[in-house]
Automatic annotation (TrEMBL):
Residues 72-255 form the YNCE-like beta-propeller domain. This is 6-phosphogluconolactonase. The keyword Signal applies. Keywords: Signal. The keyword Signal applies. It comes from Staphylococcus schleiferi. InterPro entries: Haem_d1_sf, Host-pathogen_enzymatic-act, WD40/YVTN_repeat-like_dom_sf, YNCE-like_beta-prop, YVTN_b-propeller_repeat.
C-alpha cells in the first residue's frame, strides 16, 4: 500500500500536523498563521496545499515537498474554508467575517475577485465538474449556490436554498455532481439538496452538533461528524436515514477518507476533554470502514480541526522523509 501523508489543521497551536499513514504517527508540524481553520485544499497537479488562517485574514500556501509554509495570500476577513477548482488554476475561499467568497489565482497567488454571499460562510464545496460552488452560510441558515462561469469573473449566484430556522450549516459536501449534503450544527441534521434543481430534497436527523460530511467511495453511505455526541453518524443515501453511530471519542469534527485502505480519519477538536481513546485530548481517530469500528488514535497539535490526505510522488516522498527525519516535534 502506498505511503500517504495526513495533514491535520491545528487551530489552537497554529500549525499543521503531518502524519504518516503507514506508521500512524506524527512526523512533524508546520507553523502557519493564526487560528488555522478548515481542511487543507490540495493543488490538483503541483505539490502545494492551501489552508485558511482565520485570525490573519490570509491563506497559507504549503510546500508539500519540504513540509513548510511557502507564502501567505491575502483574502477577506476571517477565512474559514478553501477548495480547489478542478478545471481552472483557481481556489475559492469562504470569508466568514466579510461574508463573501474570494476567488484566488494559483498562477500568481493573488485574489482576483470576490462574490458576496450570506452571513458567516463556512466550509464550501465545488462540484467535480467545476460548474457549481456550494457555500453554507451559518449566519443566514442557507446554502448559496454559485454558478461558475467559463470566465471565472462571470461567476454569479444562481440560487439560495433556505435550510430552516437556526440550522447553522457548517459544511457543504457535493456528492457526484448532483446532491449537496450540509451539516446543520444547531438543527442536529443533514440537509440534502438537489444541485441541478436547486431545491431541498429532505432533512435527515443525526447526532448532536454535526460538523462535517463525507461520502464512502464504496458504499451508499455518507458519514457525518457529530461533535456533541462524540460519534460519527452513517447515513444510507438510498433511504436518506441514519443507520449507525460510530463511537470515535470526544468532539469529532474533521473527516477524510483514504479510499485505498478504506480508512476514515476523524479529528477530535476539543483538546481539553479526556477519554479512554484520547488521553491527551488532541488527536485523530482512525476508523475501519469495512467494520465501521474505531481502530486507532494518533496524537496531533492543539485543537485539531480538519483533515486532508496527500499522496506524493516518489521524489516528493524521499524529500519529505529527509525533511521530517531532521525535524523534532
Amino acid at each position: 500500500m502506498k505511503e500517504k501523508f495526513i495533514y491535520v489543521t491545528n487551530t489552537d497551536s497554529n500549525d499543521i500536523s503531518v502524519i504518516s499513514s503507514k506508521q500512524e504517527s506524527e512526523l512533524t508540524r508546520i507553523p502557519v498563521g493564526g487560528s488555522p481553520r478548515g481542511s487543507m485544499a490540495l493543488h490538483k497537479s503541483l505539490p502545494y496545499g492551501y489552508v485558511c488562517n482565520c485570525a490573519g485574514d490570509t491563506i497559507s500556501k504549503i510546500d508539500l515537498t519540504n513540509n513548510k509554509e511557502d507564502s501567505k495570500i491575502k483574502v477577506g476577513l476571517a477565512p474559514r474554508g478553501v477548495c480547489v477548482d478542478p478545471n481552472k488554476e483557481i481556489i475559492y475561499v469562504s470569508n466568514s467575517g466579510s461574508s463573501d467568497v474570494s476567488i484566488v489565482s494559483t498562477e500568481n497567488d493573488q485574489e482576483i475577485s470576490r462574490i458576496k454571499v450570506g452571513e458567516n460562510p463556512r466550509f464550501l464545496s465545488v462540484s467535480s465538474d467545476g460548474k457549481y460552488l456550494s457555500v453554507p452560510c451559518s449566519g443566514s441558515d442557507s446554502i448559496y449556490i454559485i454558478e461558475l462561469g467559463e470566465n471565472i469573473l462571470d461567476s454569479k449566484i444562481s440560487s439560495i436554498v433556505e435550510l430552516g430556522e437556526n440550522a447553522k450549516p457548517y459544511h457543504a459536501f457535493t456528492h457526484k455532481n448532483y446532491n449537496v449534503y450540509t451539516a446543520n450544527t444547531h438543527r442536529h441534521s443533514v440537509s440534502v439538496i438537489d444541485l441541478h434543481k436547486k431545491t431541498l430534497i429532505t432533512e435527515i436527523p443525526v447526532g448532536y452538533g454535526p460538523r462535517a460530511v463525507i461520502a464512502d467511495p464504496y458504499k451508499n453511505l455518507v458519514y457525518v461528524s457529530c461533535e456533541a455526541s462524540n460519534s460519527v453518524s452513517a447515513i444510507d443515501i438510498n433511504k436518506n436515514e441514519e443507520i449507525k453511530h460510530i463511537d470515535v471519542g470526544p468532539t469529532p469534527r474533521g473527516l477524510k477518507i483514504d479510499e485505498e485502505s478504506e480508512t476514515l480519519y476523524v479529528s477530535a477538536f476539543k483538546r481539553t476533554m479526556i477519554s479512554k481513546y484520547n488521553q491527551d485530548g488532541d488527536g485523530l481517530s482512525v476508523v475501519d470502514l469495512k467494520t465501521l469500528e474505531r481502530k486507532g488514535y494518533v496524537k496531533t497539535g492543539l485543537g485539531p480541526c480538519s483533515v486532508s490526505i496527500y499522496e506524493p510522488s516518489s521524489e516528493t516522498l524521499i524529500n519529505t522523509y529527509e525533511t521530517n527525519n531532521s525535524t523534532t516535534v
